[in-house]
Amino acid sequence: MNAIEVEELRKEFKVHKSRSGLVGAFRDLWTRRYMTVRAVDGISFTVKQGEMVGYIGENGAGKSTTIKMLTGILTPTSGRIIVNGMNPHKEREKFVRTIGVVFGQRSQLWWDIAVQESFRLLKKVYRVPDEQYARHMSEVIEMLEIGPLLDKPVRKLSLGQRMRCELAAALIHNPPLLFLDEPTIGLDVLVKLNIRQFLKQLNERYGTTILLTTHDMSDIEALCERVIMLDEGKIIYDGSLEQLKEKWGQGKRVAFTFAEGKDASILQELTAGLDVVWKKGEQSNVWVAHVPSGGVPEVVSRVAARYALQDIRIHEVSTEEIVRNIYEEGAVHG
Ligand SMILES: Nc1ncnc2c1ncn2[C@@H]1O[C@H](COP(=O)(O)OP(=O)(O)OP(=O)(O)O)[C@@H](O)[C@H]1O
């Protein structure tokens, strides 16, 4: 069964458009002008049970709006959504017991009471039987290493400690589907690693489906085989991360630090006939060659045979860069 089915999904917001200047402001008092923002523009995709999918896009691409529709917080303008076999907006009460949601910027824990009291309240809300709660939560608490935090009030926790408790809170009813919106934002590397490790274990142990929104591509690389990329409300790529890297990440950057300053024409002449693009580095004696992977040895040997070098560094193109390039070009071609 599919965990998520989305077909031709759209969400439009009507926003007030203000006129400029003082006269404009007065006119706004009498007649308001509106414009329509299409936050999500006819997207379709399915997510199978047990998949971990990265949902990525630049600021304002429409990620949060999609998640809000998938979790039943917002109603779509048009289109069809089925999540865990239900319409999220219509079968609200039954539906929320089948999903977990973590918004990195918002908390579902009560600020002034001990973490375990929040957990107990949520257990009641979700009507989780004692035995199931004890069994499942003891595992979650152990995996997230939050045992020592349970009797502390949330306001006394660091951000990393709080986020681990937020994750545990979202899982009290052991939902088959988890939505994570920027779960590692602002966290230090060790906490990020702990959270990623935990999500992997959760997926392996319970087959939990995870839809993850993040700006941190290393989260995606650590967890998701599949990515859906959004741009201006439309899907511009839906496929494996591997394929994205193969298609877009070919080539390497070789940074040469010369003993003395060089200019572009000399280097172009030296590598004439090879597939190389030279770009100036941060200092006058640093030049970076963009070369297809197989071409690196030839470029290095020509340059090193002719000029004295202080250093050579070879960089793989990172997923972060691949994604940035795709957004700069605006679409994923062929
Ligand atoms: N309640 C709202 N009213 C009006 N416009 C909205 C509303 N919510 C979102 N938008 C607009 O819809 C578009 C998509 O916003 P959304 O928050 O879904 O993007 P996002 O991809 O989650 O961005 P970010 O990474 O910054 O969170 C933006 O242009 C945003 O300004």
From TrEMBL:
Q: What is the name attached to this protein's record?
A: ABC transporter ATP-binding protein
Which domain of life, per UniProt?
Bacteria
Domain ABC transporter residues, every copy: 24-257
Q: Which organism is it from?
A: Geobacillus thermodenitrificans
What Pfam families does the entry give? ABC_tran
Which keywords does this Swiss-Prot/TrEMBL entry list? ATP-binding, Nucleotide-binding, Transport
InterPro entries annotated for this entry?
AAA+_ATPase (IPR003593), ABC_transporter-like_ATP-bd (IPR003439), ABC_transporter_ATP-binding (IPR050763), P-loop_NTPase (IPR027417)
SMART domains (UniProt xref): AAA
Q: Does the record's keyword annotation contain Nucleotide-binding?
A: yes
Query: What is an example of a GO molecular function annotated in this UniProt entry?
Result: ATP binding
Record SUPFAM superfamilies: P-loop containing nucleoside triphosphate hydrolases
